[in-house]
Design a protein that fits this description.
About 35% of the residues lie in helices and about 20% in strands. The chain is an alpha+beta fold. It has three domains: about 270 residues, 7-stranded beta/alpha barrel (Alpha-Beta Barrel); about 130 residues, Butyryl-CoA Dehydrogenase, subunit A, domain 3; about 200 residues, no CATH class.
């Protein structure tokens, strides 16, 4: 046998021996390591009584079955710390309905003995990144009022998880501005890892600090993972139930959310085993505090765009804004909610202006109606009215809540008209930026003056592709109008800008029973390949007064698709010279509100769903403007426009869509399935 062959056999023997030895060492050492390592568990339960939005029977089942039975289990084991997260609306229901008296007592008992941590910062589980900051502010304020009413405000957690794991950079400023105690947001490992820049070498921490460089405000991010790992001196695991109402569900029950007692008992046995092994049970805030004490806190030094907990699975924010393939038109629902915001702001402004002339009795009535209208509207903005397969009742509930809010606004104007002489409430225009109220239609102002509606698509500064429209395999052509006009800010800025307007309308089925999927695509790209979208500027959600500059090469990991909500509609493409002048595409989000797909060579508006109503997408295109001009324009058009309200609900700006709803085929059958709503 030659030396080469002998050497090869020897190396093979050594390799096998090393492998066997290593396996033996791991098998022997790992149990020793686990037995001699401090173990810890953070138990977290996310409850959502709007899981079936509009179904009060489901709300009742969730409270009586999984919520109550879980609390009863933990009551028997005082050493098992745990965290429950829910809407303040759920707490309100538990504490104010006498049928839940025992459940309220148990909730209070576990909170008082500091075994149960209550995460409860929002009245309703809002899709926050679709709307301006003041919508979240309103939601936070109502939650505080609810908890304060039931002596729970000073006992709630300083942590917060948004429904569907929503995250956004703007939370650092919004939460520190509008709350005194919320300073930590939960974020998933996927959200942190998927947006890491190429070659990122940063260390992993259980807690990160996120600081807004402009406002200087910061919050902590608590990372939750689905796998255990060694961190902060413990072998730490998350006992994390994203949908706690489903966690112990009886699969054989004909009713949703009924608890399987055997599952619950098996869960109890698992925790008993952990307790016997010396496991420490943490609440979320206790775990954060421990991490701070041992220095296990890092600085988040890269930007994460708005997203949900399963970033690749749900394509950033796309699933909740036009990619669900079901009976809900997400783009219309989100736009309808946005329009309702304008109506409520206008109505409140009118009331505040004339409040001193209103009798004390009517002030009380008006304020009750405003609160009722705002809460109805906020419930319409919850994540369950769009997203993953909403039922008919969830769409109907959202639409009905907005209509109810509008009707209350018209009633408020009627009360004002009866008390205030010369107040013409048949039509009032309110400038949501300046607060000016115009009581005469001859004084009404228009921000946009269209001068030519005969332009062709090729006259736009972008190539616009509208050809990928599919219905049952057939290509359809949308109705397209290209216009030219002028913008006048009509305020102290005294700004005038030339612009193009693009209106694209896709024909819906006008039949609630027809859920055939349509794939809508409006793609913007430059004719010159040297011009692209590798660098863009936008306003992060909740930060319509700030801008963020992004580079596409920082987000290259497949299969990550980045959809930006553009809550104020602004997309700015800087030039290669100054970086602060360029072109802007501003979407009118009160016409149709969907996320944008950001790619290197193009920006695309996509919808993939059963399209029932006509989908009207409207864009304003500005050439060679400054970033500040584009930002001011977007906020003026979308966030603080002029808005018309009336004592006649049918004349309120944005109400016209209900005329379409009423003429839809199979509406009656859908309404009966969802419950009476008109």
């Amino acid at each position: 046998m030659d030396n080469a062959l002998k050497r090869k056999k020897l190396l093979k023997k050594i390799g096998l021996s090393s492998l066997i030895t290593a396996s033996f060492m791991v098998a022997c050492f790992l149990p020793f390591l686990l037995l001699n390592t401090r173990r810890a568990t953070t138990c977290y339960f996310h409850f959502n009584i709007d899981y079936r939005l509009g179904r009060e029977d489901v709300e009742d089942t969730i409270i009586r079955e999984p919520y109550y039975k879980l609390l009863k289990l933990y009551e028997k084991h005082p050493n098992w710390k745990f965290t429950v997260e829910c809407q303040a609306a759920m707490i309100e229901k538990i504490y104010e309905d006498k049928d839940y008296k025992e459940i309220a007592k148990l909730t209070e008992k576990l909170v008082e003995r500091e075994q149960m941590e209550l995460i409860c910062a929002l009245q309703y589980s809002q899709l926050f990144y679709a709307y301006p900051e003041d919508v979240l502010e309103k939601n936070l304020n109502y939650a505080e009022e609810t908890l304060d009413k039931h002596d729970l405000l000073d006992k709630r957690s300083n942590c917060l998880l948004f429904q569907e794991g929503q995250f956004g950079y703007g939370l650092a400023t919004a939460l520190k501005t509008h709350t005194d105690d919320i300073d930590t947001v939960l974020i998933s490992t996927q959200q942190l890892r998927d947006f890491e820049p190429p070659g990122y070498l940063g260390l992993d921490y259980p807690v990160f600090k996120l600081k807004n460089s402009e406002s200087g405000k910061s919050i902590h991010l608590l990372q939750y993972d689905y796998l255990p790992k060694w961190e902060a001196g413990y072998y730490h695991s998350w006992n994390f139930l994203l949908d706690a109402e489903l966690g112990f569900e009886d699969a054989d029950s004909c009713e949703e959310f009924i608890v399987d007692d055997d599952k619950l008992e098996a869960y109890e046995q698992e925790l008993l085993m952990l307790e016997l092994q010396g496991n420490t049970f943490f609440t979320c805030s206790e775990w954060v505090n421990h991490c701070k004490e041992v220095g296990a806190v890092g600085q988040l030094d890269y930007y994460i765009p708005e997203c949900n907990w399963g970033t690749t699975k749900y394509n950033s924010s796309y699933i909740w804004s036009a990619n669900n393939g079901d009976s809900t038109d997400d783009g219309e629902i989100l736009a309808n909610n946005y329009r309702c915001r304008q109506i409520l702001l206008a109505t409140r402004k009118i009331y505040e202006t004339y409040k001193s002339s209103v009798s004390v009795g009517n002030r009380s009535i008006i304020e009750e109606k405003l609160e009722y209208a705002e809460k109805k509207w906020l419930q319409a903005t919850v994540t369950d009215s769009t997203g993953i397969g909403p039922d008919a009742i969830e769409r109907v509930t959202a639409e009905n809540n907005v209509l109810t809010a509008q009707e209350n606004c018209s009633q408020i104007l009627q009360i004002l008209a009866n008390e205030i002489e010369d107040l013409d409430v048949d039509k009032l225009q309110v400038d949501l930026k300046t607060g000016a109220i115009y009581n005469n239609t001859n004084q009404f102002l228009s921000l946009i003056n269209i001068t030519d509606t005969t332009l062709k698509l090729k006259e736009l500064p972008f190539e616009v592709d509208l050809n990928s429209i599919v219905l049952d395999g057939d290509k359809l052509n949308p109705n397209v109008v290209v216009s030219k006009g002028t913008y006048n800010s009509s305020d102290a800025d005294n700004e005038t800008l030339p612009l193009f307007r693009l209106d694209v309308t896709f024909r819906g089925s006008h039949d609630w029973a027809n859920d055939s999927i349509q794939s809508i695509s409006i793609k913007f790209q430059y004719e010159d390949e040297d011009e692209n979208f590798q660098e863009i500027v936008y306003c992060p959600s909740l930060l319509e007064q700030e801008t963020k500059r992004l580079w596409r090469y920082n987000y290259i990991y497949d299969p990550l698709y980045i959809f930006l909500p553009l809550s104020n509609g602004m997309l700015f493409i800087p030039d290669d010279y100054t970086g602060f002048r360029g072109d802007a595409i501003i979407k009118n989000v009160t016409a149709r509100h969907t996320s944008w797909l950001w790619q290197y060579y193009y920006m695309e508006v996509l919808e993939t769903e059963g399209l029932h109503l006509d989908a009207h997408h409207q864009f304003y295109i500005l050439e060679d403007v400054s970033l500040n001009q584009a930002q001011r324009f977007a906020n003026r058009i979308n966030v603080y426009p002029h808005w018309t309200v009336s004592q006649n609900v049918s004349l309120i700006q944005g109400n016209g869509v209900y005329d379409v709803y009423k003429t839809m085929e199979n509406r009656i059958a859908e309404d009966e399935a969802a419950g009476e709503w008109w």
